[in-house]
Design a protein that fits this description.
single chain; 247 residues; Rossmann fold; Arc Repressor Mutant, subunit A; five-stranded parallel sheet; five-stranded antiparallel sheet; 8 helices; 37% helix; elongated
């Protein structure tokens, strides 16, 4: 998939040489690019030059690091903007932590500009996989309620019927948010995997089924007669409860 000429990319990297190289290469390939060195500059660019279709975010930054910035983006009004994280470290733990914080993909330095562009195109393709009426609006309520449960989307907390916070992993929270953002719609396993983990399913992959099982346990949802997350045979899952927005 070729990136559209209108695609607007924000690069956050403290290495000026990398910023200049990527800006030149991506502009030649039809993208509009803003490149900044720090989280402070990132926030200014989001307000002054946004919206952006994709953010390329370095993990190792002066001041606030990429993980902190990624978490803040996912908790605020830019939660639907795809993020591709860069790092000089190539350890599995770093990749997993980045994805847990909400990054859509991960690329270790050093890398070829062509490889980064290919990753960016893949992330944009996955983001646009859902029809327009199923995409998440940027401006959403800070609180979402379903049944007797409530989610604080800023603090990323799930509150049970008695108001007690229930701990969720990053992957569990993202899956719950996908369901809450698209209630009463059947979502395939491929769509759920793309929206929660930023990648496509491998053959016979069952990670989404395991994640749904864990989330059902958190919601005390009986898998045999679920109230919230229902299985649709041969198609995927549907969040069957109505969702109410609360300010």
């Amino acid at each position: 998939m070729q990136a559209k000429p209108s695609d607007h990319v924000l690069i956050v990297d403290d290495d000026r040489e990398i910023r200049d190289l990527l800006t030149t290469y991506l502009v030649k390939n039809g993208l509009r690019v803003v490149a900044v060195p720090t989280g402070r500059h990132m926030r200014a660019a989001l307000e002054e030059s946004g919206p952006f279709d994709l953010i390329v975010l370095d993990l190792m930054l002066p001041g606030e690091d990429g993980l902190t910035l990624c978490r803040d983006l996912r908790a605020g009004k830019y939660k639907a903007t795809p993020i591709l994280m860069l790092t000089a470290r190539n350890e599995e733990a770093d990749r997993i932590l980045g994805l847990e914080m909400g990054a859509d993909d991960y690329l270790a330095k050093p890398f070829a500009a062509r490889e980064l562009l290919a990753r960016m195109r893949a992330v944009l393709r996955r983001t646009r996989m859902l029809p327009p009426n199923m995409r998440v609006a940027e401006a959403a309520s800070h609180r979402l309620a379903f049944g007797e449960w409530e989610v604080d989307t800023v603090a990323r907390h799930l509150l049970d019927p008695s108001g007690v916070m229930v701990a969720l992993s990053g992957a569990e929270y993202r899956l719950l948010r996908v369901f809450l953002d698209h209630p009463q719609r059947v979502l395939s396993r491929d769509q759920l995997l793309s929206l929660t983990q930023g990648r496509e399913a491998e053959l016979f992959e069952r990670s989404i089924d395991l994640l749904v099982s864990r989330l059902r346990q958190r919601l005390r949802d009986d898998a045999r007669e679920p109230r919230y997350i229902k299985t649709v045979r041969s198609e995927g899952y549907v969040f069957a409860s109505a969702v109410e927005s609360r300010d």
